[in-house]
Amino acid sequence: MRNIENRFSEKKAEIENLQVPDELEMRLRSALKSRTSSSGGRSKWKGKLVALLIFGVLTGYHGDTLAFYSKKYIGYEKIMNSTLKKLNTLEKGQVIEKSYTFKNNVKLTLDGIMLDDNQLLVFYTVKDPTGNVDQVDISGTTMEGMVGQYHMGSGQGEMNDEKTEMKWIVAFESPYFFEKRLKWSFMLIKGKQSEHGEITFILDRNKAMGHTLKKVLNKKVKVDETEIRFESILATPTTTVIKGTIQNIVELAKDQILGERFRPETLDIKLFANGKEIVYQGGGMRTNINGMKFDEKFDALPKDLNKLEVHLISFGADHDVDEVIKLKNDGSNQNFKILGQNITINQVDASSGETYVTLTTEESVRLSLVNLEIDGKTIALEDTTKDTYQKKKDGRVHHMRTLRFKGDGKDLTLHIKRIKYDKIYNKIINISID
Fold it and tell me: Which domains does the chain carry?
């Protein structure tokens, strides 16, 4: 009994300091005004309310009961990064709470959103009463506004143990500033059948978070065949995005005509704030009528920002070349360079009507398109075998492998048409934060 009294005393202090949300107070007042029963009925109703509050105090149930009336998203903690958790604690979101139920009773609920100048984050729940939510295929999701669609980017979800519910956080492009009404469309796929659904909601621009830093960079870094141009950085409360260009449309057209194209594959960029690396969240490269563009996405910047740096660590691409190597068959090594990359042919063998060419390069170097001319006849590469790696004292890693071609002969010429490699740059770009 003493334990119960102590528990009541503790919870009494908590309740006295509890700030009741305005929405809850308005709903309770509305409920009280709408009742038309006698005073005796009101007394019974008050008694039930007191009993409910006592039950909540003893079980901790009141936290979940009030969850809807706060602006926090409940149940998303496992799929939120630390930045989103902080924003959620600060109630930086817009609660939507609108649902769509499909014919098979699968229910999709748009719990809420977070909006800033970089992205629109959508928080939604999928429920399947049959316990097969892991087999529910929601696809074809689009966000449509007044001027068109906003594309979906990354997303991640978490399923409960009973497989009845899955929480998702999905990122869309940030809508234009004048957008107010958005329509979220989605498709439930089951076998060969599908069902379309949609939820329309109004953006509350008062809850949008804008940006914390916006800069035009105009910084260039020279790489093998081009310049990487860092054009802008936009930091918001949820993420930081760096955008740039690898080739403009004129440069693309010129390389196409000259047959000297290169295809970027890896771009390793790091972002440092106050001397600490900011967590990388993803990125991509694309080619369109505006040229070859890239964007790199990082976590949000710290509030007490006093130093900001972009580090270009390395850049990798697949390059068009036209190198012809006359092969020796005397057991000696052949050393040569292509675009500054060292290549050694260690051995050439013939066996069972096939030719094997063993070569060594740096770890990142690949001959992505190579043929062998045997007595004037062009033979395509069959496959690559016997991959081995050796680490040198200086830290570099050498890669030895064997190329297999069908056919053999006396006159052998290796024709290399494309080569792929990464190159280390370690260039630092300082960004003014004034």
Answer: 77-207 (2.60.40.1640), 213-319+425-431 (2.60.40.1640), 323-419 (2.60.40)
pLDDT tens-digit readout, 15-34: 444 444 444 444 445 544 54
Q: Quick one: which H or E segment has residue 43?
A: helix 39-59
Read off the pLDDT of residues 166-222 as tens digits, 9 standing for 90 and up: 999 999 999 999 999 999 999 999 878 899 999 999 999 999 999 999 999 999 999
Task: Please state, in angstroms and rounded to a whole number, the distance separating the CA atoms of residues 275 and 307.
Answer: 7
DSSP-assigned beta bridge partners for residue 138 = 188
CA distance 296 to 318: 20
- CB atoms < 10 A from the CB of 241, how many? 18
Q: Residues in the chain, how many?
A: 434
CA distance linking residue 36 with residue 22, whole number of Å = 24
288: tokens are 């369109």
Judging by DSSP bridges, how do beta strands 119-127 and 165-173 pair with one another? antiparallel
Structure tokens at 118: 């970089």
Q: Which amino acid is at 307?
A: K
Contact criterion met (CB below 8 Å) for 74 and 67: yes
Between CA 425 and CA 241 the distance in angstroms is 21
Rounded CA gap, 306 and 113, in Å? 30
d(CA 172, CA 112): 13
C-alpha closest to that of 420 among 338, 352, 360: 338
Q: What secondary structure does DSSP assign to 280-328, as a single string? A: EEEEEEEEETTEEEEEEEEPPPPSS---EEEEEEEEEEEEEEEEEEEPP
Helices (H) and strands (E) in the chain, counts: 6, 24
Tell me how crowded residue 156 is: count the other CB atoms within 10 A of its CB.
13
Q: What distances in angstroms separate CA 181 from CA 93, 149, 201, 205, one per listed residue? A: 17, 12, 6, 11
Neighbours of 110 (CB within 10 A): 20
**Residue 114: how many other CB atoms lie within 10 Å:** 24
Is 70 in a helix, a strand, or coil? coil
